[in-house]
Design a protein that fits this description.
It contains 9 helices and 14 strands. By secondary structure, the chain is α/β, with parallel strands linked by helices. Helix 4 crosses helix 9, helix 5 packs antiparallel against helix 6 and helix 8 packs across helix 9. The model has no long low-confidence stretch (mean pLDDT about 95).
């Protein structure tokens, strides 16, 4: 299985999944969060791919804006959340639903993870997680529609997945997120080492994704709100005690918004 990032806009990644075989015959692929059709068309033509399905994690335009144009050329099912905000979804999904694509080679389950938006879902199996804007490398999405406790619980769902799972998020925010993570936990050696690795990758114009959930558990402050160092940093920032992990999450999310 090949999972390729197609860059879009300033920092989005559209993920294209296929079984890496000969280019001689057109083969099926699955597209995740195509905000822009133009770079996707170029990659499909280059690799001789035909979309079998489109997966959407939430309704924001930079994840859905290319769907209609793609469907005009490649009619196919669109899997996404139950949402009044996405007219193009043909197969609305809820938590616990399963889908099988690419002749059964790609099997994915669905988690509902509201917080960034209320309709956000993630697709996962034992080795891959397509989490849109809920979880980023070393960060998480802005809280546009959800509440802190709701977003915290969504991240806890993702944190409970196997540590080896590869995290395919939708933006190249890793370097900036790690700068914030270092401000929260300045003595976290794992963060420092990851910053060096990411700086090297970006200097070579390479993608920093996917990460692994193990990486996130070690360096992502939004998955570490129950750690004493993160709690202490949040309470110092707030100049008051915080009652629990959801409050710590809310505090560091506000901190990140103004960082």
């Amino acid at each position: 299985m090949r999972i390729h990032p197609v860059p879009a806009f300033t920092d989005n990644y559209i993920w294209v999944i296929d079984q890496h075989q000969s280019k001689q015959d057109a083969r099926a692929c699955v597209i995740v969060d195509p905000g822009d059709a133009t770079p996707v068309f170029a990659y499909l033509e280059q690799e001789n791919l035909v979309p079998e399905a489109i997966l959407l994690t939430h309704h924001h335009w930079d994840h859905t804006g290319g769907v209609v144009e793609l469907l005009q050329r490649y009619p196919c099912p669109v899997y996404g959340p139950h949402s009044d905000n996405i007219d193009s979804v043909t197969h609305p999904l809820r938590e616990g639903d399963d889908i099988q694509l690419l002749d059964g080679a790609l099997q994915l389950r669905v988690l509902e993870c509201p917080g960034h938006t209320l309709d956000h879902i993630a697709f996962y199996n034992d080795t891959q997680l397509f989490c849109g804007d809920t979880l980023f490398a070393a960060g998480c999405g802005r809280m546009f529609e959800g509440k802190p406790d709701q977003f915290y619980q969504s991240l806890q769902k993702l944190a409970a997945l196997p540590a080896k799972i590869k995290v395919y998020c939708a933006h190249e925010y890793t370097a900036a997120n790690l700068r914030f993570a270092a401000a929260v936990e300045p003595n976290n050696q794992a963060i420092s080492e990851r910053q060096q690795q990411v700086a090297r990758l970006r200097s070579e114009n390479k993608v920093t994704l996917p990460s692994t959930l193990a990486d996130e558990l070690a360096t992502n402050p939004f998955l570490r709100v129950e750690k004493s160092f993160v709690r202490n940093a949040a309470e110092s920032k707030e100049k008051q005690s915080l009652s629990g992990p959801a409050e710590v999450f809310a505090s560091i999310r506000r901190w990140k918004d103004s960082f």
